[in-house]
Design a protein that fits this description.
alpha/beta, Rossmann fold, Helicase, Ruva Protein, domain 3, 2 domains, 7-stranded mixed β-sheet, two-stranded antiparallel sheet, 10 helices, 39% helix, binds S-adenosylmethionine
Length: 268
């Protein structure tokens, strides 16, 4: 594809130019003919081209008007010119008549976390996601309890997805090179998703990790009392020692208590 303009910083444009890395990513994605795949931020089509060769057709979402115009010249690409944060993936799956979508992208790092959170609402229509992100973000996403990287992002992600880091990528693989190291993560929604009260879980981990060096009894203790939850939860430890399953279970208990309190209030 012709390069219509210089990389635009405001769109987080760092284009992949290393062919070996591109091949490694495409092999990790393992696209098969006929699969319905959506690429976020195709840019100069460094990934789109080899992906579409194997798929036959690819749906792409690109915000940059000049790039979108170039991409429209490619017969096997369907181009949505839009901000991905405004794209409803559930509607898109329906429109493409796909029970589930495969999603890929070398994401713009300036909005990578909002993109990950945006996709939370659409896990039901996602088969898997392969994303290039800042390595540091990937390490926080996949971190396990007791490690320094384990925190809010780890819990919120691991409650929804199984994940694995598949590839480290050095800055020299891009033009222009980003200031940070990168990595590709594979994510697929957990199959038996428990009925998680997401806003409660989000608030719970925010409070728990707010002062991560302190024992939970100094941070979470008062908050749990406020919620009216007298749990048997062990508060004599730090947030980073609590597993995702324990956070999810506690969020469920808090939500249950809130519902009971609300219905009791309604009776009075
Ligand atoms: N996929 C290409 C590659 O690997 O060389 C480009 C990756 S570049 C890091 C990020 C791409 O996302 C750019 O093409 C950029 O224009 C696009 N982009 C940035 N913000 C976007 C947004 N909000 N919605 C959709 N695309 C966006």
């Amino acid at each position: 594809m012709a390069h219509p303009n210089a990389p635009r910083k405001r769109f987080g444009q760092h284009f992949l130019t290393d062919h070996a890395v591109i091949e490694d990513i495409v092999n990790a994605v393992d696209p098969r003919a006929g699969q319905i795949m959506v690429e976020i931020g195709p840019g100069w089509a460094a990934l789109s081209q080899p992906l579409v060769e194997r798929l036959g057709h690819l749906q792409v979402i690109e915000i940059d008007r000049d790039l979108a115009r170039e991409l429209r010249g490619h017969a096997q690409l369907s181009v949505i010119e839009a901000d991905v944060l405004q794209v409803n993936f559930s509607d898109l799956a329906q429109r493409l008549q796909a029970p589930q979508l495969r999603v890929v992208g070398n994401l713009p790092y300036n909005i990578s976390t909002p993109i990950l959170f945006h996709l939370f609402d659409h896990v039901a229509v996602v088969q898997d996601q392969h994303f290039m992100l800042q390595k540091e973000v990937v390490e926080r996403m996949v971190a396990t309890p007791h490690s320094a990287d384990y925190g809010r992002l780890s819990v919120m992600m691991q409650a929804r997805y199984q994940m694995e880091k598949v590839l480290d990528v050095a800055p020299e693989a891009f033009h222009p090179p980003p200031k940070v190291d990168s990595a590709v993560v594979r994510m697929w929604p957990v199959t038996q998703e428990p009925d998680v009260p997401w806003p409660v879980l989000s608030e719970l981990v925010r409070v728990a990790f707010g002062q991560r060096r302190k024992l939970l009894r100094h941070t979470l203790g008062a908050w749990l009392t406020q919620q009216g939850v007298a749990s048997g939860f062990d508060l004599q430890r730090r947030a980073q020692e609590v597993s995702v399953a324990e956070f999810v279970a506690l969020a469920g208990k808090i939500a249950e208590t809130l519902i009971k309190r609300r219905s009791a209030n309604n009776l009075h």
